[in-house]
Amino acid sequence: MSTAPRNAAAKRDWGHDESGCTVLHIDMDAFYASLETARHPELVGKPVIIGWTGPRSVVSAANYEARKYGVNSAMSMVRAQQLCPDGAYVNVDMPYYRHMSQRIFDEVFRQITDQLEQVSVDEGYMDVSGALLRWKSPVAIGAWIRQQVAQRFNITCSVGIAANKLVAKMASTNAKPNGMLLIPKAMHAEFVRMMPLRGIPGIGPSLEQRLGAWGITSVADLADMDEASLAQATRSKITAHNLYLAARGHDERRIVTDAPEKSIGSEITFEHDTRNAPEVRELLHHCCNEVTRTLRKKGLMARTVTVKLRFADLSHSTKSHTLERPIDATATMYPESVTLLNTMLGLPKDASEDTPLPHEIRLAGVSASSLSPKEETSVQLTIDDLLGNGDEHGPGGERNQKAIEDKERNGCEGDRSERIRNAETVLDAVRQRYGTGAASLGLEHGDWKDRQIAGNSKLKQ
Q1: What are phi and psi of 86, to 5 degrees?
Q2: Where are the alpha helices (DSSP H) in 250-381?
């Protein structure tokens, strides 16, 4: 469910001129909670809150009945239970939500056109210009989509129709819940101008505060600024250009049907803040397992590893390292994550596993980026690789001898990493067939989550 601010006055008839309005934004209404209500009819009419239980868990989603009590996504579950003690609290079931999302996109949206950009499990853009020969009207397409989603899946969605992605998304937000809003091309500027600043996607609290310091508190104020002044206010020419266009109802972005994956990550919140290095490392190891398993499943390699930490005071820090060679195995990702962890905390790179951490850690995670398809990724051999099989008495004998000595010292660990990588690939097949808990390597601790973690693990893609 979108949490962007809305303007009640925007939910009106803006006219019926559909010319040029070939972009639709479809947004499911309270998707997770609606799916749970659809498969559990006894929840109909009740406030439904989706999220893991536990003192560190947060609300993943809440239906409209729950929102009347002030419950919102990202709120702590403890606070939600205080506001709505009689609500129906349901555990997150991401495999089910993803499955239903895929069905909706395949069985409904793709029946209209293949010019479809899915931006999350519950929303997407559609370019219907090529479908108008059959459907005649963008509004007719939007009405059919809403009818099919309701009839087939017993949930609702909201549709925005406009000439570009920005206005279409803002229209669907203001059409909620279970509505449809057409904004004729000639009305784009007027529609956008009446919105609060945060009504423009991409303007968050930090940018809102920065603009506020320049006296910009509404989109109308934003539209009165020239681009040069916006560049000074935002300290970014790119941001200034995008805001300048947005304030006038313009958007240069196109529908992207095959956007490349940018990053894959996993992060987990501890049930209790901790300075215990082995616990944090164990968590990072699990996150690396989740990330590399996804990389291999998608046939991707990664060059950049990023570690994220959130501390007890809710401040956070991230640090990245780009590797010389692409990776898809925990055996190589995990040591990098530990090095990044130590660097972030001001510890020596070779700090002992028992070294107490200088700060209490609330959340930790690992992500992989700079992704490329495995079959298109070349792995450059290092000098050690090239010299490792050389004859110590051959050409460059002194160098080769040093390489052999280095390999004697380090080669065992390298061979071990390669064996572990191969073992990880075998485990993928075992886990796919029998479940993720069916098998593990000796260095994994299968019960770590039950012992230490609040249960709100997130896999980000």
Answers
A1: -100, 10
A2: 277-298, 330-344
Closest CA to 457 of 72, 96, 92: 92
Helix (H) or strand (E) holding 392: none
DSSP state, residue 355: P
What is the pTM (predicted TM-score) of this model?
A: 0.69
Q: Does the structure show a pLDDT above 90 at 383?
A: no
- Residues belonging to the binding site for Mg(2+) are 27, 122
Binding residues: 27, 122
Q: How many CB atoms lie within 10 A of CB 254?
A: 13
Q: Name the burial class of residue 295, with classes exposed (0-12), middle (13-18) and buried (19+) by CB atoms within 10 angstroms of its CB.
A: buried
Q: Per DSSP, which regions of 275-360 are E strands?
A: 300-311, 316-327
Residue 412's pLDDT is 46
- The pLDDT assigned to 435 comes to 54
Contacts for 408 with CB less than 8 Å, ≥ 6 apart: none
What confidence category does residue 404 fall into, taking pLDDT thresholds of 50, 70 and 90?
very low
CA angle 404–405–410, rounded 5-degree value:
95
Cβ atoms of 384 and 402 within 8 Å: the answer is no
Task: Return the pLDDT at 430.
Answer: 55
The DSSP 8-state label assigned to residue 457 in this structure reads -
The residues that are catalytic are 123
Q: How far apart are CA 75 and CA 251, in angstroms?
A: 32
Judge contact between 121 and 50, C-beta under 8 A. Answer: no
* CA distance linking residue 160 with residue 118, whole number of Å: 15
Q: Can you tell me whether residue 279 is helix, strand or coil?
A: helix
Q: What distance in Å separates the CA atoms of residue 292 and residue 310, rounded to the nearest whole number?
A: 22
- In the three-class reduction of DSSP (H, G, I as helix; E, B as strand; rest coil), residue 187 is classed as helix
Cα gap 2→122, rounded to integer Å: 10
Q: 124: alpha, beta or left, given left = phi > 0 and alpha = psi -120 to 50?
A: beta
**Tokens standing for residue 63:** 């239906």
**Stretch 344-355: mean pLDDT:** 84
